[in-house]
Amino acid sequence: MTEAEKLYERLKPLQEKKGYFFNKDMELTTALLEGLLTNRDRYGYMCCPCRLASGDREADRDICCPCDYREADVAEFGSCYCNLYVSKEWNEGKIPHEYVPERRPPEKSVY
Question: Is the pLDDT of residue 110 over 80?
């Protein structure tokens, strides 16, 4: 079993209890989980693979997965920004798969 598969198996039941589901597109989900593991190895913490991290854990606290924006994103769009976490309805195709805009304030971004 790969590290990404182990992470999936560890997180899946914990997140589903909270009403968050992994995207059913396993290719995408695996790539995102691998990105989280890469960031853990790179920075020492699992920050969102869809955002640029600074390498400063405190500055990146809001984008440590699950990020501070996930709840609002899933509530409004059925998916978080990177599409890792989704609602059950999103996975079932009962709601449209819309673009999720970035909620992170620009001053926190590393660009």
Answer: no
